[in-house]
Sequence to fold (214 residues):
Amino acid sequence: MTDAAAADSGAREVPLSALEHYDYCQRQTALIHVEGVWSESAETVRGDLSHTAVDLPGIQRRRGLTVVRSLQVWSDTHGLRGVCDIVEFENGTATPVEYKVGRYLPGGPAELQLAGQALCLIEAGFAVPTGYVYSVAERRRHPVPITANLLDRVVRATEAVRELMANATLPAARNDSRCRKCSLREDCLPELTDGRRQSPSDLLTPRPLGQWRD
Ligand code: SF4
Fold:
């Protein structure tokens, strides 16, 4: 089923944040958006604190530029919905800015979430040539060109997330370097759920937390 057909049929909307989770780890997406699992870590708390300024809805105007904080956006065509941290509007152009606590990763999951916001703003009638990922750790913005390829990735990821949300089966764990930083590690138990056979004696052998297969 296409996104448009899914939206018409009343299928579940996909949260924009799920696009980032999906790009990071499919199992993480299912744990959060299907099972409702959430655990805090130092990183998630830092993320919440760094969002304090942009989580308060508000509008500022200066010299032709309108800056809106915490703006709800959606796409009826693709069944997407979420909140932009900041959108700057000027002469029919919208520029979303997504805040991330860590360092900027070119081509990383944050760009997919940002492009999802861009897709919603384009559907609302704005031109969106560029967005920015603001790294709190680096205290700087990184420009992200909103290309047709990136928007296409958003559409495909939205379909995949919707399928995942309709499916009762959790994807196997990745059990690689990404698990080190994942706040759901203790809920996920990647060493035991990566789909590789474990003998009973393997399961009972004490080992240090975090033996990754990468
Ligand atoms: S611990 Fe690893 S496999 Fe499990 S949800 Fe996190 S990233 Fe995914």
Notes: The chain has nine helices and seven strands.
